[in-house]
Design goal:
With about 120 residues, this protein is α+β, with helices and mostly antiparallel strands. Helices cover about 35% and strands about 30% of the residues.
């Protein structure tokens, strides 16, 4: 990701009062699986989508791997500390993928920010 874009993303996330995260799995033309992460913030009374990144999971996309992927990407690319993540993230949206919302094994049942 370009340094200017990364810098603007860090500034937007830093200035945001609350952040919502969206996670979705996509399949590329070569049939590889990727996880896309977006952050949504409010700027000037309008919701803005901020692309965090697309990541190819190493191995099986378990809930633990996805949690680590979200936390690492938001802290490394977005420049947020764990404390900021705990305070600002108010919502995590996922599609119907079982690994993401299973009651016992997915992000839904996993306390994402209890690190």
């Amino acid at each position: 990701m370009g340094e200017v874009i990364k810098s603007n993303l860090k500034k937007s996330l830093s200035n945001a009062t609350f952040i919502s995260i969206s996670i979705d799995e996509v399949i590329a033309r070569d049939f590889t699986s990727w996880v896309c992460i977006h952050a949504y913030i409010v700027e000037n009374y309008a919701r803005k989508a901020k692309f965090i990144g697309a990541f190819q999971p190493k191995g099986s996309a378990t809930s633990n791997l996805l949690v680590q992927l979200v936390v690492d990407s938001i802290s490394n690319i977005g420049g947020m500390s764990i404390s900021d993540i705990n305070q600002k993230i108010v919502c995590i949206g996922v599609d119907g993928c079982l690994v993401m919302h299973g009651l016992r094994n997915g992000l839904y049942g996993f306390h994402l920010l209890d690190l």
